[in-house]
Amino acid sequence: MSSAPKLFRVIGGAQNYDWGKLGSTSAVARFAKLNDPENVFIEEEKPYAELWMGTHPSVPTVSAQDRTPLRDLVRAAPEEMLGQDIIKKFGSKEGIPFLFKVLSIRKVLSIQAHPDKALARQLHASDPKHYPDDNHKPEMAVAITDFEAFCGFKPLAQIDALLQKIPEFRELVGDDVVAEFHSGIVSSDVAGKKKLLQKVFSRVMNSPESKFEPLAARLVERTRSDPQLFGETLADLIQRLDAQFPNDIGLFCGCLLLNHCILKSGEAMFLEAKDPHAYISGDIMECMAASDNVIRAGFTPKFKDVEVLVDCLTYSFNPVEEQKLKPAPFPRGTGVAELKLYDPPIDEFSVLQTTFTSAGAEKFEALDGPSLLIVTEGKGKIKLQSSDEALDASTGNIFFVAPKTAIELVSESKDTFTSYRAFCEA
Ligand SMILES: NNC(=O)[C@@H](O)[C@H](O)[C@H](O)COP(=O)(O)O
Ligand SMILES: [Zn+2]
After folding, report:
1. What's the EC number here (predicted)?
2. Which atom of ligand 1 is nearest to the CA of 99?
């Protein structure tokens, strides 16, 4: 197998989870079709949830030229494809340390969290069917369209207020724990408050269907009879999600316990391993450590691991604004484009958004690691700075860029030309 070039187009793989947008309304379907028009035929009734870009074995990304799996190209020439420093840092020649995705969301995803490395090793060893790898999965979402999600537990005073005024929530948790929580959250002992939050969450998550289903039905009724108890947004959210998953435990463990986070296009949020979350609607770029380990507990027909979830969460509780990740300038490009760097506090990935609103070029310094770039709007060219040969780069096109490779993006029109580049550096 000849060693791979420094810059080449690749074809990602789609996941058709039930919560994905349908047919051409899905950015995943549109991008997949535009990037591989001869082989992708969009079925309008089918959900297209995720477009995977990376070397995770569950959904192969392949080279556009001869459909060789990117994973095989990396394993055939790890020094060229990953770089010595990345191999040394992550101790692996097997694949790219991150997994990059487009998500297009019609229905709420499962209430979930992802394991840290120690828990991932344990779960993969004991239950490889549900936990396909032994890696942690911290992740970041960057909103392409307006996007909403559950992200982390609400501040405790907000949870307490809901417990005091919503009878169905109070009944599900139990007067004893409600009283203990109410009196305990005023203390300064953070560890003790996390324990109390875990008690509330455990009561909710361990309640039998025979108990939470009728309470959920009454809860939805109350959002119609007493909307003022919930506040405008929350009443609407409960009704909307009940329509998707009737009387689901997620109405309690999601709507009443987790922050409802709304991101405008270009805003981002970062989720540590073991942070509870669930994406609700919109199109996003998502980047994560290379893993597919999901611990689920609500709003899903998939396998729920309630005991593991209740036991593993961080039980941190921060206001919504603290869950957001602010983009930073990216001083390693020269030209006319606007550059925004989304750089979370973990080693596996950062994501660079490049936006042109006029004709012109942007030259980038070589990065000290592998990257994957996808065009999400408009059209232009991508090229090695060391060559005159330019490749078409239009919406849906995905490219692999090898380490130590200086590239240039060129926009040839005044229309918007936007791309996202996930990368990892030692
Ligand atoms: N927060 N987002 C993620 O973790 C994605 O990368 C996962 O692939 C999805 O959460 C999977 O969701 P379901 O298990 O189908 O509900
Ligand atoms: Zn997740």
Report:
1. 5.3.1.8
2. 6
